[in-house]
Amino acid sequence: MQYIAPLAKLIEHFRSLPGIGSKTASRLAYHVLDMDRDKAKALAQAIVDAKEKIGFCNTCFNFSDCNPCALCSSDKRDHGIICVVEQPQDVDAMERMREYKGVYHVLHGVISPLEGIGPDDIRVKELILRLQNEDVREVIMATGVSVEGEATAMYVAKLLKPGGVKVTRISCGLPTGASLEYADEITLSKAIENRKEM
């Protein structure tokens, strides 16, 4: 279908988002056109504000608008336990279960030789440095239950073992290939509860 140029550009931008196909992009674009001008401006400003005001926590590398983030600076968290996850969305998933009281470390990916992603391309070095500077009793590997997630967990565990820190892996209550982001709270809770030493 031939759209007028500004509408076509808006649809193109929506279509570039993950999980948004042509029909949904078109539906979103028409919804924006039907919005009150002030609401449309508020939506645009929220996007700009998020890009300008959100960065990475220098400790855990989760998204944050302050440094260190609220979780890393909280005295109510157990800083002796670090849960290592793939992406910031995984922190949100873990927090939804409201049972985990430790802190996090976000790798921002997994080791994937087929995609040219090695250990230096994710936040493994930062985790090692963190363990040298903090008193950590346990590292929980909560990467996804995919080939890449398992390989990353094994790689990190091998690096950490000589340092004497206990390394555990969340139990496989998650389906193979599943992302933490989409797991329900009960499944995540059981996966943490039944974690095994690596």
Task: Explain what the structure shows.
Strands 4-3-5-6-7 form a five-stranded mixed sheet. The chain has two domains: 5-53, RecR Domain 1 (Helicase, Ruva Protein, domain 3); 63-197, Dna Topoisomerase Vi A Subunit, Chain: A, domain 2, CATH 3.40.1360.10. The mean pLDDT is 91. It is built from eight helices and seven strands. It is α/β, with parallel strands linked by helices.
Q: Which class do the helix and strand fractions yield? A: alpha/beta
Ranges with pLDDT <50 over ≥5 residues?
none
Q: Estimate the strand proportion.
A: 5-15%
Rg estimate, integer Å? 20 Å
Listing every helix as H and every strand as E from the N terminus to the C terminus, the arrangement reads: HHHEEHEHEHEHEHE
Q: Report the span from N to C terminus.
A: 55 Å
Number of DSSP strands?
7
The spatial strand order of the largest sheet comes to 4-3-5-6-7
CATH class type of the largest domain: Alpha Beta
Largest sheet, strands/sense/barrel:
5 strands, mixed
Supply the CATH architecture of the largest domain.
Answer: 3-Layer(aba) Sandwich
Which fold name fills CATH's third level, the topology of the largest domain?
Answer: Dna Topoisomerase Vi A Subunit, Chain: A, domain 2
Structurally, the number of domains stands at: 2
Q: Report the helical percentage.
A: 40-55%
Global mean pLDDT = 91
| Shape, per Cα inertia axes | elongated
Question: Helical element count?
Answer: 8
Q: Quick gist of this model?
A:
The protein is α/β, with parallel strands linked by helices. The chain is 44% helix and 14% strand.
